[in-house]
Amino acid sequence: MIAVILFSALIVTESASRSEVPVEILLLDAHGRPRAEALIVLDDGELHPAPAEARFEIEQRGLAFRPSLAAVQVGAEVFFPNRDPFAHHIYSFSPGMRFELPLHRSGERPSHRFSQPGVAVIGCNIHDRMQATLVVAPGPWFGFTDADGRLRLQVPPGRYRVLGFSSEEAALKPLGDGIAKPEAPSSWVFSTEGLKEAP
Ligand SMILES: [Cu+2]
């Protein structure tokens, strides 16, 4: 939920650009049913870093990361407040995404800036069962599908690779391409085939 809120805030900023056009993506599963709460990322092949003040938060509370799946724009600073009464020690060994936030006590709020796109599987060195996944998108065009399997975005005209997050593989998998045309709203339909269902 927090991820969606941040995303909306970024879009408001980006919408200042007059050249953006509305795109609606519909994601269906292998049986043609709408797929809700799927993370979709659009990639035009270039990096579009977030403004330096872009912030996001993944809290540690009740021996869990919240949210456990989140997405941010590349360049965003992610804070990890510890709201448990004991210490945590955060790390990721994911290729290209390695980082570590050593032992931090209750009430501390360490952060890390993610300057490369990719998928970071995040754990705690002390509590094995704590796990989160952070998807760092190459630009501001990403979000979760709603209950009807739809995601609406404002994007500059152009060609995009459409990627869906597979929780089973902890990776972004290509769903196909879409072209946003300047003269009219674009509507793209993709299937999750190839995307594994969440466990
Ligand atoms: Cu911990």
Instruction: Report the CATH topology name of the largest domain.
Output: Immunoglobulin-like
CATH homologous superfamily grouping of the largest domain: Carboxypeptidase-like, regulatory domain
Q: In what range is the share of β-strand residues?
A: over 45%
Number of domains: 2
Task: Estimate the global geometry from the Cα principal axes.
Answer: globular
In N-to-C order, the SSE pattern is: HEEEEEEEEEEEEEEEEE
Separation, N- and C-terminal Cα atoms = 19 Å
Number of helices: 1
Mean pLDDT: 90
Give a written overview of the molecule:
The protein is mostly beta strands. The protein has 2 domains: 2-48 and 140-191, Carboxypeptidase-like, regulatory domain (Immunoglobulin-like, Sandwich); 55-137, Immunoglobulin-like. Helix content is 7%, strand content 45%. It contains 1 helix and 17 strands. It has one helix at residues 2-14; strands at residues 21-28, 39-43, 55-57, 59-60, 65-66, 69-73, 77-79, 88-92, 99-104, 111-113, 118-124, 131-137, 142-144, 150-155, 158-166, 171-180, 186-191. The strands form 5 sheets. A 5-stranded mixed beta sheet has the order 6-12-11-8-9. Strands 13-2-15-16 form a 4-stranded antiparallel beta sheet. Strand 15 and strand 16 (171-180) form a beta hairpin. The site of copper (II) ion has 5 residues, from loops. Copper (II) ion binds next to loops.
